[in-house]
Specification:
Elements lengths: L6 H7 L3 H24 L1 H9 L31 H29 L2 H24 L5 H15 L2 H12 L5 H8 L2 H16 L6 H20 L17 H4 L12 E2 L2 E2 L16 H5 L4 H30 L3 H29 L2 H22 L4 H31 L11 H26 L4 H18 L1 H12 L12
Antiparallel strand pairs: 1-2
Membrane topology: Multi-pass membrane protein
GO cellular component, one term: endoplasmic reticulum membrane
Keywords: Antiport, Endoplasmic reticulum, Glycoprotein, Membrane, Sugar transport, Transmembrane, Transmembrane helix, Transport
């Protein structure tokens, strides 16, 4: 009697070849961008170690000092203007990142993504390690750290347009919000891991808080070189359909000869290899796609809020709740945990309703009063702090995650492009590049405003949330019109 197939093998064989490769690419790109954010996070953890309250630190008996107030600080951050200096370091990275992002997408459309990502991660690892080496080489020059931040900001722009373009090449429009909402948790996972790794070393040897993440991202760059597959056609897998039949209308199908799907599963017919002879889209051409401008400007203010928390939350917790550097870093990870849930929820809701703009707008409106409450009652006790960080993280990072993933992919494969599959990286770079301007402004303004009180920083963040909503008002109105007419549910931007 022939024995039945083992349960484990039945499970494995139930997945098609295409599904296995798509899952592998999703995991691989998740790992890549996790390492990017992992390498960015240490500076926010180390800030509270570079400038400390030395009166609470036990001074070594054999230490000969001349200044009792700053003996434990790391020059040049031992001055009264240390918050401004931290703001300069943040903006050396973020301004370069914002400027470089606009060009990164253009390069990403013209250079093989595997090479582009591999080189970017290796260089990111190098500059992250060089920052940490300043501890061991006893470097106290602001210029040294500023130049490294500039270079790191430039090479880090290789990450986002490339990974979004790669995922967009492998996944069609169906349930894109949910898939990319889960996938986009790499941002929060990277922040959490970066905080935890940096926290292990911050109090003993803060240089290792940079060197370890630098080694990790360099290793993932090597992994990328050996295993990344840019397009499904490269290994004879079935390309996805970016538009459903009702979305297409009179627009030509994105891929002629594309196999039909039944109940979401791909038929077993051999895939037709489609050569892509279209030219990469121009910057102005990408900017003219309906919805790109509105979502770009919305992301500018949404990312301003998110990155202010990314770079300043540990210091805020340390100053207001009086935690030490490690405890403040660990507590700040709750904001990113909330961000994971918020990103997934935003994707699921926008998939179900077909309203990307409305989903973002509702979450941004809810975030404003929550930020006010967190600043006023968030530090009363541990339970309140945990709850408020989780809620604020979900509401702040939810719209940010949705715009940078599903919205960017939707617009990069918009039906007005008539099948030009080479626009995705450029569109992603425009949207994220504009958002990165806000990411640079937020920490800069926080550094300038925080000496006058943390209340003023939160008023700035609430104002940014309101402005982000205003830029989506036209798109929200269009989506509401579609619902009122009881039109068939549209998963994307047909009405824009």
């Amino acid at each position: 009697m022939k024995s039945p197939l083992a349960p484990g093998m039945r499970l494995i064989t139930s997945f098609s070849r295409d599904s296995c490769y798509r899952t592998f690419i999703l995991f691989l790109t998740f790992l890549f961008y996790t390492s990017y954010h992992l390498s960015r996070k240490p500076i926010s953890i180390v800030k509270s170690e570079l400038h400390r309250n030395c009166s609470t630190v036990v001074r070594p008996a054999d230490l000969n000092i001349t200044n009792n107030a700053t003996w434990c600080d790391w020059a040049p951050f031992d001055q009264d203007n240390y918050q401004t200096l931290f703001g300069i370091l943040d903006n050396c990275f973020l301004v370069t990142y914002a400027i470089g992002m606009f060009f990164s997408g253009i390069f990403g459309e013209r250079v093989p993504l595997r090479y582009y990502l591999s080189v970017g991660m290796l260089l990111s690892g190098l500059f992250t390690c060089l920052f940490g080496l300043g501890f061991y080489l006893k470097i106290h020059s602001l210029w040294y750290y500023a130049v490294i931040q500039v270079m790191n900001g430039l090479v880090q722009t290789t990450g986002w347009p490339a990974v979004v373009a790669c995922v967009g090449n492998w996944f069609g429009k169906g349930k894109r919000g949910f898939i990319m909402g889960v996938w986009n948790s790499h941002t929060s996972v990277g922040n959490i891991l970066g905080s935890l790794i940096a926290g292990v070393f911050v109090s003993s040897a803060w240089g290792m808080s940079f060197i370890v993440p630098g080694i990790i991202i360099a290793c993932t760059g090597i992994l990328c070189f050996f295993f990344l597959v840019e397009k499904p056609e490269d290994i004879n897998c079935t390309p996805p359909q970016h538009h459903s039949d009702q979305d297409s209308g009179e627009v030509e199908p994105l891929l002629q000869n594309s196999p039909r799907t039944v109940n979401g599963s791909i038929s077993s017919e051999p895939p037709a290899i489609v050569e892509d002879h279209t030219e990469a889209i121009s910057f102005c051409g990408a900017l003219s796609i309906p919805g790109v401008m509105e979502f770009s400007l919305c992301l500018l203010f949404a990312k301003l809020v998110s990155y202010t928390f990314l770079y300043w939350l540990p210091l805020y917790i340390s100053n207001v709740a009086h935690f030490d550097a490690k405890e403040a870093g660990d507590m700040s990870t709750l904001f990113d945990v909330g961000g994971i849930v918020g990103g997934i929820m935003a994707g699921v809701v926008s998939d179900y309703t077909g309203g990307r703009a409305t989903t973002c707008c509702v979450m941004l409106i809810a975030a404003a009063p929550m930020l006010f409450l967190y600043n006023n009652i968030g530090q009363r006790n541990l339970g309140t702090t945990v709850a408020m960080l989780l809620v604020c993280g979900g509401l702040v990072n939810g719209p940010y995650a949705l715009i940078t993933t599903a919205v960017s992919a939707d617009l990069g494969t918009h039906e007005s492009l008539r099948g030009n599959s080479r626009a995705l990286s450029t569109v992603t770079a425009i949207i994220d590049g504009t958002g990165s301007i806000g990411a640079a402004l937020g920490p800069l303004l926080a550094g300038l405003i925080s000496p006058y009180g943390w209340n003023n920083v939160f008023y700035m963040l609430i104002s940014a949330d309101v402005l982000a909503c205003l830029f989506l008002s036209r798109l929200v109105y269009k989506e509401a019109q579609g619902w009122c007419r009881r039109a068939p549910r549209v998963r994307g931007f047909k009405e824009i």
